[in-house]
Amino acid sequence: MDTQVRFTWNIHWSCNYRCSYCFFDTHWEEYGKRNVYKTVEEWMECWTRIHQKYGRCFLTINGGEPFTYPNFVELIHRISQIHWPINITTNTSVVLDKFIKTVDPAKVSLSISFHPQYHTIDDFIDRLFRLRQSGFTEGCLNFVAYPPFLPDLQRYVDRFTALGESLKVIPFIGEYKGVRYPDGYNADEKKVLGMTDSWVAQKQHKGMLCRAGQMAGLLLPDGNVARCGQIGDRHIIGNFFDKDFQLLPEPMPCDVEFCPCDEWKVIPDEKAPDKAGTWLP
Prior knowledge:
The chain has 281 residues and is an alpha/beta fold. It has a single domain, classed as Aldolase class I (TIM Barrel), CATH 3.20.20. Helices cover 24% and strands 19% of the residues. The chain is built from 8 helices and 13 strands. The strands form 3 sheets. A 9-stranded mixed beta sheet has the order 6-5-4-3-2-1-10-11-12, with helices on one face. Strand 4, helix 5 and strand 5 form a beta-alpha-beta unit. The chain is globular.
């Protein structure tokens, strides 16, 4: 394939944090029963097969907390020899000394998440500064705009802006004190979040042909591969551990109402030409 294939890898449903706004809040034990732990060598066999089939792939790794996966640093070091770029989302709670010394920042980046329930902003900035000094200059700074955090939102944004950093503010999707979000944000909050009047419409792609599953896949902790995170278990295209695993041969219509994570990758479709997008490698 000419375009680089992407895999989003939910490496395991296990985390040392219990953030109130997490998608998996109250479900960790239930989901954790599906975790399958492989050795570094077993994973390398799988990722080598993928390389032989699709060439060098782009990996996005999250969880749970990826750095609590057994032998994670060695695993990333080995995989990054054949697949890159790799972006890892982490809460930075695990000491990263070995990672910094072992992994090539030209191939691997970190998107680090600021969680006020567990971090002070000064502590978080100290960790960020150390990563930047060590050459890890790429990746997002993620922050979920959970309603209790809103009074401090502008202060957080200003603090990172003053450091030359950009805080990626992610709308909270769910219910808090009887209010449904993201609809519950007021006009000023929506402005900070970048939520224009057309924001919801821009996240709706139902019926459009989508290359999720063809040029991208969501690798789940049990080895199953779904088209994307919004569809999840409703459309499993195969198991990553099978030697004959392969992605879909062609695009398929999107069947979800709302895609807040921008996992959608669309191509022009006569059903909705005004919404047609492009696949970005």
